[in-house]
């Protein structure tokens, strides 16, 4: 049984302080987010998380991808589709992931222990398109989704080849909303999955009531859902576990909508219930969703609680 995170971590931006940082700032080369990545990586490792993220500290899940992809325009924080979606202008998250992976090495004095590592995270094509407004070129969102899947595939491949993560996760929160054409969403994930030699995970938060049957058919090795801040998903999983045979379940067991540390007893009961339904070998523990909105110390304590319980049962 291993633990992971969904992605984003709280950010406290630091001003350039030392001589080197000030010098970099004076030539416009200071990156204030480097410290945030370091903080996110070390906090996750200190809390005992096995498969960490780079903290996704640079911004919201849509624009951090769409700003590197021709066809999109971002204005006042909104994303518009203005022309045909093409391949990214460069690698999007590879540099941060490599930096984060090196920090894991540093944390463990040179060798990343077995079972620990980093995952790459890409916002899913359906979620990006449904968060954007089409102003020209496309008549149907579905066509834009498929073009974007081909574009994001370049990033997925770059992450696989250069970062060599434990796995890659696609975030598709929109798939539980009923707004998305599930057939097209599935085809898009199929494009991302092609020729991948590491597992692909898909995170979908929200209530699964109307989506679980479709989601169980997606070609991914891991499906990640929320079970802490949600009172129907556990029941759905239990009654339909046979649908998810052959897949691992990312088991959200920490309520990311609450900015306070979860109850130890309730979390432990939930985890035990999860193990009971899914089986110890097929469960990955993580928070329901990203912890971006929680205060730094609360985010840390939430992750630590989850890992302390995990270690107690291993
Ligand atoms: Zn989520």
TrEMBL record:
InterPro entries according to UniProt: Met_Synth_C/arc, UROD/MetE-like_sf
GO molecular function: 5-methyltetrahydropteroyltriglutamate-homocysteine S-methyltransferase activity; zinc ion binding
Keyword Ribonucleoprotein: no
Residue span, Cobalamin-independent methionine synthase MetE C-terminal/archaeal domain: 3-309
Top-level taxon: Archaea
Biological-process GO terms, alphabetical: methionine biosynthetic process
Listed cofactors: Zn(2+)
Keywords (A to Z) from UniProt: Metal-binding, Zinc
Protein name, entry field: Methionine synthase MetE
Lineage: Archaea, Methanobacteriati, Methanobacteriota, Methanomada group, Methanobacteria
Name of the gene this protein is made from: metE
């Amino acid at each position: 049984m291993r633990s992971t995170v969904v992605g984003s971590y709280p950010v406290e931006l630091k001003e350039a302080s030392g001589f080197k940082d000030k010098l970099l700032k004076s030539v416009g080369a200071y990156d204030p987010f480097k410290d945030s990545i370091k903080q996110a990586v070390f906090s996750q490792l200190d809390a005992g998380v096995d498969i960490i993220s780079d903290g996704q500290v640079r911004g919201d899940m849509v624009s951090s991808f769409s700003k590197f992809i021709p066809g999109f325009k971002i204005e006042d924080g909104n994303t518009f589709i203005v022309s045909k979606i093409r391949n990214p202008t460069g690698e999007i998250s590879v540099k941060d992931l490599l930096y984060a992976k090196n920090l894991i090495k540093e944390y463990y004095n040179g060798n990343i222990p077995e079972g620990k590592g980093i995952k790459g995270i890409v916002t899913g094509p359906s979620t990006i398109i449904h968060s954007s407004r089409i102003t020209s070129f496309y008549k149907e969102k579905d066509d834009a989704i498929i073009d974007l899947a081909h574009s994001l595939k370049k990033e997925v491949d770059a992450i696989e080849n250069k970062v060599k993560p434990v796995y890659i996760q696609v975030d598709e929160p929109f798939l539980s909303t009923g707004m998305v054409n599930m057939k097209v969403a599935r085809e898009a994930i199929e494009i991302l999955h092609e020729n991948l030699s590491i597992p692909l995970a898909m995170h979908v938060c929200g209530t699964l009531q109307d989506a679980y049957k479709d989601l169980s058919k997606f070609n991914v090795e891991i499906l990640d859902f929320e079970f802490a801040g949600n009172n129907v998903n556990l029941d759905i999983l239990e009654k339909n576990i046979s649908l998810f045979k052959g897949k691992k379940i990312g088991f959200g067991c920490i309520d990311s909508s609450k900015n306070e540390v979860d109850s130890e007893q309730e979390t432990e009961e939930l985890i035990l219930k999860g193990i009971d339904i899914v089986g110890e070998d097929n469960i990955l523990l993580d928070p329901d969703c990203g912890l971006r909105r929680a205060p730094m110390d609360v985010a840390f304590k939430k992750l630590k609680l989850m890992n302390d319980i995990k270690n107690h049962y291993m």
